[in-house]
Amino acid sequence: MRYMEPELLDRLAREYVLGTLRGAARRRFEAVCRDNEAARRSVREWEDRLVGLSLVLEPVPPSAAVWTGIRRRLGSPARGAGVPSPVSGGWRFAVAAMLALAVAGLSWMYVTRTGDPAAIARLAPEGGPAIWNVETYPDRGRVRIVVTGEVPVQAGRSYELWALPEGGAPVSLGLMPTGRAEMRRLSDAQRSALGLSRQVAVSLEPAGGSPTGAPTGPVLYVAALAT
Amino acid sequence: MFEAQSRPLTASAEPESEAVEALLRRCAAHDRKAFEELYRIAAPRLLACLLAILRKRDLAEEALQDVMVRVWQRAGQYDGYRGRPMAWLVSIARYHAIDQLRSRRPLVALDDGLAATLDDAGALAVIDAAESGRTHLALERCLGLLSPEQRRCLVLAYSHGCSHEEIASTLASPLGTVKSWVRRGLTALRRCLET
Question: Mutate which of A60, A66, A157 to disrupt the B interface (most B C-beta within 10 Å)?
């Protein structure tokens, strides 16, 4: 990295924070920041100086779909947020417990009644035993992921499952469980992507899953959906 | 059309820094409840920032999802010493929105109402009674010392994601003049904040 004068660095930092540094120049400055502490410090100082300008904007409550989408991307079951529950205290716990039992019971009925999945993909390292089985139940718009082997530990990373629709981009089906089996409901987009897929894949992503909505890490396992 | 509103004369306090910082620490330890609480506190303000820059509700909400997922993933990188968690959160949101702009924002002119609020020093009254108040009162005072043109340039760029070219067209001024207003505005602002 070539030497940069403090004054030039600061000029770039303030235009970066203000947002007027654009395009390739913006990318180049981000690259400088990655290994230049003085640049990062300059950026932080300008962020602190200017953040008050963001307070002139009236806060805008997001719609409920935003939270649902976030939870889906983080690979956890959708749950309400932002809307205070009318039920509180001990009742809240009791109701939650009953709901959980009901859901567990329904899931069990569902699993026992649906019988065989439409297709199974066995995700395994080359020449090794399967780590996961992905079972699809397209009629019900669900997949079940069963951990069948030892999941290699990757600290600070997550395994993410992708449908590979023919002629389209991979579509995330959420994170892979590392412990118990999971039955997962699919969104319409996931369902149609899976309907067009003959294979699924697992990639290694930052903890919590791909930040971009597309695989960003190495694709570790690919398996055919066998019917 | 703009869906974001500039607030006229008052600004609510920045969510309490210490509380937000504590939530970020718990997020770094993968505490989902803390993340939910953080979302409740911070998301409306971040959405305001995103909406002001992206100008379309669907794009802004999509961006908000990206931003919150990033916040969850990067919570461990938040350096506590900065003591200004909202600056960290707002920066993640603003930079993401600016990156989205390149291909996506159609050229939308500022509407007259919004442009008018930029003239009003009251629109910049970022009054904050909370513990972060000192800095914001200082910012307000220092913005008051800028020329109206300099002030408008900074707000258009920072809050609304306008490029130099867009500011020039909004203010019907030559590009070189706008660049010099921005430069001098920032220089004067820093000098004032440091005294």
Answer: A60
Domain of B36, in residue numbers = 8-106
pLDDT digit of tens for each residue in chain B (195 aa)? 333 444 433 334 455 788 899 999 999 998 999 999 999 999 999 999 999 898 889 999 999 999 999 999 989 888 755 668 988 999 999 999 999 886 555 444 444 444 444 443 333 333 332 234 444 667 778 888 888 899 889 988 998 899 999 899 888 999 999 999 999 999 999 998 887
User: What is the DSSP secondary structure assignment for residue B132, as one 8-state letter?
Assistant: T
Cβ separation B49–A208 shorter than 8 A: no
High-pLDDT (> 70) share of chain A, % = 79
Cβ neighbours of B175 in A, within 8 Å: none
* ipTM value for the complex: 0.80
Topology at the third CATH level for domain A119-224: Immunoglobulin-like (2.60.40)
Both tokens of B164, joined, read: 């130099």
CATH of the domain at B37: 1.10.1740.10
Q: Give the burial string for A30-60 (b: 16+ CB within 10 Å, else e).
A: eebbeebeebeebbbbbbbbbbbbbbbbbbb
Q: Is the pLDDT of residue A205 over 80?
A: yes
B1 domain-assigned: no
CA distance A211 to chain B (A): 6
Of the CA atoms within 13 Å of residue A174, those in its CB half-sphere come to: 25
**Cβ of A211 and B123 within 8 Å?**
no
| Contact with chain B for residue A62, Cβ under 8 A | yes
- The closest CB to that of A73, out of B69, B135, B162, belongs to B69
CA atoms of A155 and B1, how far apart (whole Å): 45
Domain's final residue, options B106, B139, B159: B106
